[in-house]
Write a structure and sequence with these properties.
By secondary structure, the chain is of the alpha+beta class. It contains 7 helices and 19 strands. The longest helix has 14 residues. The protein starts with a strand and ends in an 8-residue tail after the last helix.
Length: 288
């Protein structure tokens, strides 16, 4: 891929990101690349821009994101229907979604300029919330949709269905519906499996279930997953990709299915998914 126009988006609150942004823009300009800068990112380096993330999605061939995994999740959430390839430079701590460290930004831009980039197609989750007479609300998730009990120290009850058939009623601290990308996030912490990006499945993982036999279950990514807040006295909150939680009314139904269009996420050719897992999770083999 040889992108003609590159959109640059940075996490403004990350330490050192202003200096990195300036260096990246200088390196891109040196290669005579067409650049559009998101408005808050432009402020970091003393420039002016009116472009929002959504507008960059409609105008650019590639989005260069400076930050961590959370920054990429935020960008995807604001793109709407204009899903564009993303190349992430890590300024965070873990960085499962980014493909280059900030110290190697020159090599990253060299890869972009020469087209030496591979893209993994990451499945996105289409989350639709139906509650009474209210208009249906739609949110797109790269990682997961998490149902939780909020601040109250009590379990919630959630009815779950797959393709119209009852799965069970979970009595738990919460429930996670994760994509393969999100399988290394909250679902992993709750005991769920790690899934390769191209595995073609979703995972449903209960959080601290009251019934000990409730465990993660893997379903096809073509499945329709429905979760209903079933108990009036048990308030339920929905958080999509770590954004602001939404309180669900009793009887509200959340329907989740794969989006028609995946996210092309950049990866350097020498970095496979399994090498990233080994590195980030510090899998070094047996010490025996």
């Amino acid at each position: 891929m040889h992108p003609k126009t590159i959109g640059v988006i940075a996490h403004a609150q990350k330490p050192g990101v202003a200096e990195l942004t300036g260096a990246v823009l200088q390196e891109l300009s040196r290669r005579s690349m067409s650049i559009l800068v998101e408005k808050q990112t432009a402020t970091l380096v003393g420039q002016r821009s009116d472009f929002t993330i959504a507008q960059l999605g409609t105008r650019c061939d590639l989005l260069l994101v400076l930050g961590g995994d959370g920054t990429i999740l935020n960008v995807v959430g604001q793109l709407g229907e204009s899903i564009k390839p993303i190349f992430g430079i890590n300024v965070g701590s873990l960085g499962f979604l980014t493909c280059s460290n900030s110290s190697a930004y020159r090599e990253a831009i060299e890869s972009i300029a020469t087209g030496r980039i591979a893209f993994n197609e990451r499945t996105l989750l289409d989350v639709r919330i139906s509650a009474g007479a209210q208009p249906e609300k739609r949110i797109v998730a790269l990682n997961d949709a998490v149902f939780s009990r909020g601040e109250l120290s009590r379990l919630v009850r959630l009815r779950a269905r797959v393709d119209g058939e009852t799965l069970t009623e979970f009595n738990a601290d919460g429930l996670i519906i994760a994509t393969p990308t999100g399988s290394t996030a909250y679902s992993l912490s709750a005991g769920g499996p790690i899934m390769a990006p191209d595995s073609g499945v979703f995972v449903i993982t209960p959080i601290c279930p009251h019934v000990l036999t409730n465990r993660s279950i893997i379903v096809s990514e073509t499945s329709l997953i429905e979760v209903e807040a079933s108990e009036q006295d048990y308030p339920v909150y929905l958080t999509v990709d770590g954004r602001e939680p939404l309180r669900l009314e009793t009887g509200a139904v959340v329907r989740m299915i794969r989006t028609d269009k995946p996210l092309p996420l950049a990866a350097l050719p020498e970095m496979s998914f399994f090498s990233v897992v080994r590195q980030k999770l510090k899998w070094s083999g047996s010490n025996i």
